[in-house]
C-alpha cells in the first residue's frame, strides 16, 4: 500500500483521521495560542507549500474537512477562543473583520492525506501507512492464536473420546500434539507483547532520526533525507530498496529494521547529533 491510496480512498482517510499525534512526530505544528486550531497560513507553512495551494485544496474538499471541524469563524468568536486560551497574552494576531477559517488538528491531518505535492504530507502518509501495516501484522498474529485455541479444543474433544474408548496410543499422540500446540501459542503471544512492540519502537526511532537529519542537514527536505538513508541501507546491508514491494519501512523484515535502527543512530553521531537529546 502506498501514499496514493490515502489520497484516493476516503474510507481509508476516515479510518486514520484520529491519528493526529502523527503530525507532531513528523514536524512541529503551529497553532493559535493554547488551542488546537491553526490557520490556512500556518498549515501552508507546516506542509511547506504556498497558501493558495491549501486554499484550493480546502475549496475542493470543504464538505469532508467540515466534518473534521474546519470552519469559518466570526471575528468575535475567534477573539473569544483566544481570550479563553491559557497563553492568550503571548499571542499577537490580527483578525480580519470578515472572520477567519480555523483548522483543528483532525482537519490538518486530513489535508496531509490529500495534499499531493508536499514532502511533509508524503511523510505523514508514510507514517500512517506504517502504523496501519503494524496493526495488520499484530491482528494477523492474534487471529492465528485464536485459530490455534480452536484446534486445541478439538484435540481435547478427541482426547476425551480416546479415553472413553480406551485407545491409549491415540491418546498419547494427541497429548504430544497438544503440548506442541500450546508451546507454539505461548511463543506467538510472547511475540505480540515483546517483538512486535520492539519493531514498532525501532520504526519510530528510525523515523525520528531521519526527521532530525532532514531538519539539521537537508533544510527540512524529508524526501532527500530518506533517499540518502536508503542509499546507506543499500550499501551497508546490500538491500536494493527500489526493488522492494510496499511503501516506507513496511518493506523491510524485522531483522532488517533492527539493523537499520543502528545505522540511523550512527548517522546521527556522524552529524554530531546526540541521540539522547532527540528522544
Task: Give the SSE map.
Elements: H1 4-8, H2 10-16, H3 21-26, E1 37-38, H4 40-47, H5 51-60, H6 62-66, E2 71-73, H7 75-83, E3 100-104, H8 105-114, H9 119-165, H10 168-217, H11 222-237, H12 254-270
Antiparallel strand pairs: 1-3, 2-3
Helix pairs in contact: 4-5, 8-9, 9-10, 10-11, 10-12, 11-12
Brief sketch in words of this structure:
It is built from 12 helices and 3 strands.
Number of helices: 12
**Major beta-sheet overview:** 3 strands, antiparallel
What distance lies between the first and last C-alpha atoms, to the nearest angstrom?
A: 29 Å
Helix content: 55-70%
Give me the count of strands.
3
What Rg is obtained from the alpha carbons, in whole angstroms?
25 Å
Characterization of the model:
The radius of gyration is 25 Å and the shape is extended. It is mainly alpha-helical and 279 residues long. It starts with a helix and ends in a 9-residue tail after the last helix. Helix 10 (168-217) packs across helix 11 (222-237). The chain has two domains: 4-117, no CATH class; 121-277, no CATH class. The protein is built from twelve helices and three strands; from the N terminus they run H-H-H-E-H-H-H-E-H-E-H-H-H-H-H. Strands 1-3-2 form a three-stranded antiparallel sheet. Helix content is 68%, strand content 4%.
Q: Which key features would you list for this structure?
A:
single chain; 279 residues; mainly alpha; 2 domains; three-stranded antiparallel β-sheet; 12 helices
Amino acid at each position: 500500500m502506498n501514499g496514493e491510496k490515502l489520497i484516493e480512498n476516503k474510507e481509508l482517510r476516515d479510518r486514520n483521521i484520529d491519528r493526529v499525534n502523527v503530525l507532531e512526530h513528523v514536524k512541529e505544528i503551529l497553532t493559535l495560542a493554547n488551542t488546537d486550531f491553526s490557520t490556512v497560513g500556518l498549515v501552508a507553512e507546516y506542509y511547506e507549500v504556498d497558501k493558495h495551494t491549501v486554499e484550493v485544496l480546502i475549496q475542493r474538499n470543504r464538505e469532508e474537512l467540515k466534518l473534521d471541524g474546519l470552519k469559518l469563524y466570526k471575528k468575535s468568536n475567534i477573539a473569544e477562543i483566544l481570550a479563553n486560551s491559557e497563553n492568550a497574552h503571548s499571542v499577537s494576531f490580527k483578525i480580519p473583520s470578515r472572520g477567519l477559517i480555523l483548522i483543528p488538528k483532525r482537519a490538518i491531518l486530513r489535508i496531509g492525506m490529500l495534499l499531493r505535492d508536499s514532502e511533509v504530507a508524503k511523510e505523514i502518509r508514510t507514517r500512517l501507512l506504517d502504523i496501519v501495516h503494524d496493526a495488520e501484522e499484530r491482528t494477523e498474529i492474534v487471529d492465528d492464536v485464536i485459530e490455534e485455541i480452536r484446534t486445541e479444543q478439538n484435540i481435547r474433544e478427541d482426547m476425551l473420546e480416546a479415553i472413553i474408548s480406551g485407545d491409549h496410543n491415540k491418546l498419547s499422540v494427541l497429548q504430544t500434539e497438544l503440548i506442541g500446540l500450546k508451546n507454539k501459542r505461548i511463543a506467538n503471544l510472547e511475540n505480540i507483547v515483546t517483538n512486535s512492540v520492539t519493531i514498532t519502537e525501532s520504526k519510530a526511532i528510525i523515523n525520528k532520526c531521519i526527521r532530525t537529519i532532514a531538519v539539521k542537514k537537508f533544510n527540512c527536505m524529508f524526501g532527500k533525507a530518506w533517499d540518502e538513508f536508503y542509499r546507506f541501507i543499500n550499501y551497508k546491508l546490500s538491500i536494493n530498496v527500489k526493488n522492494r514491494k510496499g511503501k516506507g519501512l513496511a518493506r523491510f523484515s524485522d531483522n532488517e529494521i533492527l539493523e537499520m535502527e543502528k545505522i540511523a543512530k550512527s548517522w546521527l553521531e556522524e552529524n554530531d547529533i546526540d541521540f539522547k537529546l532527540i528522544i
